[in-house]
Design a protein that fits this description.
Helices cover about 45% and strands about 15% of the residues. The protein has 10 helices and 12 strands. It has helices at about 40-65, 75-80, 85-90, 110-130, 145-155, 190-195, 205-220, 235-240, 240-255, 265-275, and strands at about 5, 20-25, 35, 40, 70-75, 95-100, 135, 160, 170, 180, 230-235, 260-265. Helix 7 (about 205-220) runs parallel beside helix 9 (about 240-255).
Length: about 280
Amino acid sequence: MATEVQLPLGEWPDGIRLPFVLTFEHNSGEAAPMRPGDRPNANYFGQMEYGGRRGVWNILEMLDGLGIKATFFVSGATAEKFPDTVRAAHAAGHEIAAMGHSFEKVRTVSREREQAIVRRSVKSITDACGAEVRGWRCPDYRISPQTFEVLAGEGFAWDSSMLNDDLPYQLECADGKSLIEIPFTTTTSEKSHVAFPYPMRGGPSGVASVWNNEFDVLYRESEKAPRFLILSLQTWAAGRPTPLRTLKTFLKRVIAHNDVQFTQCSDIAGWCNRLAGKKH
């Protein structure tokens, strides 16, 4: 098992008060649950397939208009089914990371099986867009005992599967290798507020309130101690017209703060590695 090491985070570089890491999970139905007998659940699958067919294009257009670069966690199967979407995100300067191939749950699989999943996922994404994949997120956010060792062994620089901290930290792995863990939260996820078939908890105005409150708290706290804001959204949920308009309104509010910097996960990992004296 990897060993957690806290980093001496004093302040962010270049006068940045609050880094904002905007991430999108890009799948097109791989996460949809099956009906008994392994029959596809059309309601779930159709909703999620929207991310590959239309949602990601809406998001890319919006981000281009605002001049924001994000990190996209892409499933290998979506890269194979909708390669144009991954190529377009990469060409626009967005970071491309991996998120499994077909939403495999790795927490109980063997090391060899998990390694094969990682390699297949990376190959599918690389074949689609040519991006160098340096980051990972487990599809169900549940790691196995060997996940970090597998990722470090495959040359990854960072992971973002954990929900257990407010700040990044280092993971010391075998053979002198390490990863930066970039924790996130599901409390700011849009899908439970706006997306069928989840029980909706407030609609667009509800998720807008969550995002604004999260930003207000972290921005205030960042005056005295390092903080970072990370949103993890779904291309199949955030990409629909009304949620997208809500997101755009929120991002415009954030842009008005000159000391908030939109960053990608690789930026955070690079800053943290310099603090740790590591080179990747």
